[in-house]
Amino acid sequence: MKHLILFVIKMYWNIIPAYKRKKCIFNKSCSIYVFETTQKDGFIKGLKAFQFRYKNCRGDFAIFKNPITNKIQMILPSQIIIEKEEIADRLINKSEMI
């Protein structure tokens, strides 16, 4: 089953050119994240990685500067907070302009 997920992601990469894919809010794209997780940790972890990204790689996120640590962070729809290193650079640059 692990190889099925890897095959589907490779097909996605081959069929849909990078410029036509939806832009990910994460620094590491969803397909790369799921591919690497599946390859390293197996089918179940790959499915969980896909589920997490699918739930959180949508709108309803907020980028903010933490008033305590003064670091840029993002709160995801699932209410998980991630650090600047995990956030797509294009969103960091955009938030710093505001």
Question: Please, could you describe this protein's structure?
Answer:
12% of the residues are buried. The longest helix is centred in the first third of the chain and has 14 residues, at 2-15. The radius of gyration is 15 Å and the shape is globular. It has helices spanning 2-15, 30-41, 43-56, 89-97, and strands at 62-65, 72-75, 81-83. With 98 residues, it is mainly alpha-helical. The chain has a three-stranded antiparallel β-sheet with strand order 1-2-3, covered by helices on one side. Helix content is 50%, strand content 11%.
Between the first and last Cα atoms, what is the distance in angstroms? 45 Å
* Strand residues, percent: 5-15%
Quick one: how many beta strands? 3
Q: Give me the strand/helix succession.
A: HHHEEEH
How much helix is in the residues? 40-55%
Note poorly predicted spans. Answer: none
**How many helices does DSSP assign?**
4
Q: Judging from the principal axes of the Cα atoms, what is the shape?
A: globular
Quote the average pLDDT. Answer: 92
Reported for the largest beta sheet, the result is:
3 strands, antiparallel
By helix and strand content, what is the structural category? mainly alpha
Backbone CA Rg: 15 Å
- Describe the strand arrangement of the main beta sheet, using strand numbers: 1-2-3
